[in-house]
Specification:
The protein is an alpha+beta fold and 328 residues long. 14% of the residues lie in helices and 33% in strands. It contains 6 helices and 17 strands. A 6-stranded antiparallel β-barrel has the order 1-2-3-6-5-4.
């Protein structure tokens, strides 16, 4: 008998995120931001020679109220909430709604447009549900992540996916952030919501998507938890963020540049120009220097140097290692 003998395989319950979601979702909030837009001039888009044909538009337009919605998450039981700056930018009133239906008017503690992080505060007579930050440095491509937010106003929507890539640079928008790319579906309204790892810790904050259609196509970007924590610490203390400044124009060391300079590797940042009277000029930097480390931490490329310099508190000193003519 050449026919294979059927075998019964031991079955197990399918994997579920339910326990994780049940534990963390009460700390995910819906945020409504109210702004007042200027009325403007309704005639401004009509060519001047035709304006007398539209007298009904020749009246000043009244300012009107506009609402925008997003997500956020409570980071401690006293009521501090993290969200995206673009969710609450220019707001006159910020309303926070919890999963249990309670609503609060939030105070804006501070914002950092450069990283798109904002910190809010609500006051409650009893402790609030909260989540804790995890270590995004431990994430690997392929790890599971769970996103919770309010896409299109659908509160406490949960989606899951994997880490698609780490260290994404989106130069035009946020030079101080290495984004985590995820494929968990996120859409409008998810902005400011948390990205969780399987331990239920926040490893990122959903910030933007790439989408030719306006909806999720599986390419989303989250701000790493380490960036958020650094910004939040400063916002709590002073309401704003300060960053170190070196005073140089830089570019990454490409393989071609490394070959032309006789370098063994292509790590580091090449100083293309030194700003007169800046910190770099005063401390002896020269055009052509290759910055390889700051305070003993290796510098991978120009973007890495930008972020490491920004992390140095203003007024503090830092030690730079440079390669000049083949010597350190």
């Amino acid at each position: 008998n050449n026919r294979a003998t059927p075998r019964m395989l031991e079955s197990s319950a399918p994997f579920s995120f339910a326990d994780l979601v049940e534990r963390v979702s009460p700390a995910v909030v819906s945020i409504t931001s109210e702004t007042t837009t200027s009325g403007g001039d309704a005639m401004q888009n009509i060519p001047e020679q035709f304006r007398n044909m539209f007298p009904q538009f020749n009246q000043p337009q009244q300012p009107h109220r506009a609402l925008s919605a997003g997500s956020g998450f409570i980071i401690d039981k006293s009521g501090y909430i993290v969200t995206n700056n673009h969710v609450v930018d220019a707001s006159k009133k910020i309303t926070v709604k919890l999963q249990d239906g309670r609503t609060f008017t939030a105070k804006l503690i501070g914002t950092d447009p450069a990283t798109d992080v904002a910190l809010l505060k609500i006051n409650s007579s009893k402790p609030l549900p909260s989540v804790e930050f995890g270590n995004d440095k431990n994430l690997r491509v392929g790890d599971w992540v769970v996103a919770v937010g309010n896409p299109f106003g659908l509160s406490n929507t949960v989606t899951a996916g994997i880490v698609s890539s780490m260290g994404r640079d989106i130069e035009s928008s946020q030079p101080y952030t290495n984004f985590i790319q995820i494929d968990a579906p996120i859409n409008r309204g998810n902005s400011g919501g948390p990205t969780f790892d399987l331990r239920g810790q926040v490893v990122g904050m959903n910030s933007m998507i790439f989408s030719p259609t306006g909806g999720s196509v599986g390419i989303g970007f989250a701000i790493p938890a380490s960036v958020i924590q650094d910004v939040v610490a400063q916002l709590k203390t002073s309401g704003h963020v300060t960053r170190g400044w070196l005073g140089v124009s830089i570019q990454s060391v490409t393989p071609d540049i490394a070959d032309s300079l006789g370098l063994k590797g292509h790590k580091g940042a090449l100083v293309a120009q030194v700003v007169p009277d800046g910190p770099a000029a005063k401390s002896g930097f020269q055009q052509g220097d290759i910055v390889t480390a700051i305070d003993g931490q290796p510098v991978d490329d120009a973007h890495d140097l930008t972020r490491k310099v920004a992390a140095v508190q203003t007024g503090k000193s830092a030690t730079f290692t440079v390669d000049r003519g083949g010597k350190q």
